[in-house]
TrEMBL record:
Protein family according to the UniProt entry: Belongs to the iron-sulfur cluster assembly SufBD family.
Domain of life: Bacteria
Annotated SUF system FeS cluster assembly SufBD N-terminal domain residues: 39-196
Pfam families to which the protein is assigned, alphabetical: SUFBD_core (PF01458), SufBD_N (PF19295)
Residue stretches making up the SUF system FeS cluster assembly SufBD core domain: 199-433
Matching PANTHER family: FES CLUSTER ASSEMBLY PROTEIN SUF (PTHR30508), UPF0051 PROTEIN ABCI8, CHLOROPLASTIC-RELATED (PTHR30508:SF1)
InterPro entries: Fe-S_cluster_assembly_SufBD (IPR055346), SUF_FeS_clus_asmbl_SufB (IPR010231), SUF_FeS_clus_asmbl_SufBD_core (IPR000825), SUF_FeS_clus_asmbl_SufBD_sf (IPR037284), SufBD_N (IPR045595)
Name listed for the protein in its UniProt record: Fe-S cluster assembly protein SufB
GO biological process: iron-sulfur cluster assembly
Amino acid sequence: MSFTPPTYQYGFWVKDRPYFRSPHGLTKKAVEELSFQKNEPEWMLKKRLEAFDIFFKKDMPEWGADLSGIRFQDIISYLKPTAEQSKRWEDVPEGIKYTFDRLGIPEAERKFLAGVSAQFDSEVVYHKIKKKLEQQGVIFCDTDSAIRNYPEFFQEYFGKLIPAADNKFAALNTAFWSGGSFVYIPQGIHVDIPLQAYFRINARNMGQFERTLIIAEPGSSVHYIEGCTAPVYSQDALHAAVVEIVVKKNARVQYTTIQNWSNDVYNLVTKRAFVEEEGEMLWIDGNLGSKVTMKYPSVFLKGQKARGEILSLAVAGRAQHQDAGGKAIHIAPETSSLITSKSVSHTGGRTSYRGLVRVTPNAKRARSHVQCDALILDKDSRSDTYPTTQTNEASARLSHEATVTKLSDEQLFYLKARGLKEADARSMIVNGFLEPVVKTLPLEYAIELNRLIELQMEGAVG
């Protein structure tokens, strides 16, 4: 099979002169300096140092993708690109503004976003929210600002859904977190257009550790969209984020991620939502690019009739391993969950579904369905499924379906006989396979995701 490397349009980088840069390596001194630079309260520094100790005590996970290539001694844990955050696009430094202009951030803001936040390496460099939402009491800001301006939320929720001891990379994030988003939606408020955050790694050997916290009060709703890219370097970068979401009674949160990292990024993310009575949480998780992804959004259904849905999409090409999936933990009666996984592997790429459904003894009449569908485009690619189901409740109704499909010569022949080129025929088959996930996105994002998938598929014709 011949292979032409796909075009990665976000592989550019800009020369930057950061306001502050930590030395290479993960050290206690680096944690203390980061906290000092941010002028944080003493309780947060204490949490960071406790997490730092946990990180070094915990072993690297050996059950998923190969992480042996991560060189923690080379990682830059904190890079502050500017002295101050900007609220006017004109005030953003030229090199950073050039980067986000090419990524379409200002254009997207003007067209259809309720608010936008742009993070460059370790810090949010630009943020803006529509005045109407501010007047309704909606809070959308970077996490560093939130810890200063809304400390009551942080002390109540920070690390409660995902404690530092949860896993090695949650501990790493808790020790070195910087940037990310804080969202608070007051009771009964419905945010009808999306809030968006965009995370960009620019520096070599960068470790990006953003922290996101979303709180939806009873009867509220919000859709938060996250996009990610990075340049192409010969050295590997690390993205280890943590996302905590609180969905209160009868509230609804949708969290959409379209990550298109370059092939030298280890993407290791912990995402978890607690859902109270009759609340609804929807994760839409699109993973393209990266060297390795390990990410399993989870829902803890804590209130009666709470509902959770996870739509996971992964596309893996040469030298890529996308290990993704979802977790649903049923704790209360009459809760329901749906996990749908769609994966495509081509030109030697590997995808894995890894999921968990757990039903506790109190979750009477819980319902869950898992659907895993994999499409393999050539003999050099691979797909694996690792589902786990645990139940202690006889009234629960659980089901699991899985399919693995190989691209057949008959399908290609049929489409080519109707005038399509082979590359177009393959794209049509892949787009049709992924359509159930893509159709859940707002129109603009569905178009962008289809375009990214086409770019990923370039060179996948042998």
